[in-house]
Amino acid sequence: MLMRTDPFREFDRLAQQMFGSATATRPAALQMDAYRQGDEFVVMFDLPGVDPETIDIDVERNVLTVRAERRSMTPEGAETIAAERPTGTYSRQLFLGDSLDTERVDASYDAGVLTLRIPVAEEAKPRKIQITGGGSGPKQISG
To answer: Which residues are CB-contacts of 19 (< 8 A; sequence separation ≥ 6)?
Structure first.
């Protein structure tokens, strides 16, 4: 299961709202949704306008890190009239529980949404244990 997320994400969001993203020293946090469906966890990050080539996903010791960069689309030498869409580097870390199989993370990017599917590890799934003996034959117990 997902254990926790970056504890400073909310602070970063508030600082960016008050002072603008130009004053933030940390990369901007990615907005996400996460849920469990059957034997996998699904995490979706909003990354509109991000080139998939700039997305980097790493897992190290149960810490999943997603980084992405949105570059300005304004051509060199053009006069900027409005610049409200944030650009720069975005980052998010998730601390994954031991019950997830970090070797088999699947990632896809469609319509500005990065979707990660993280399966539950085989050893963490419920299993049946067979009991022998007792005269009436084998019985199964949920384990």
So the answer is: none
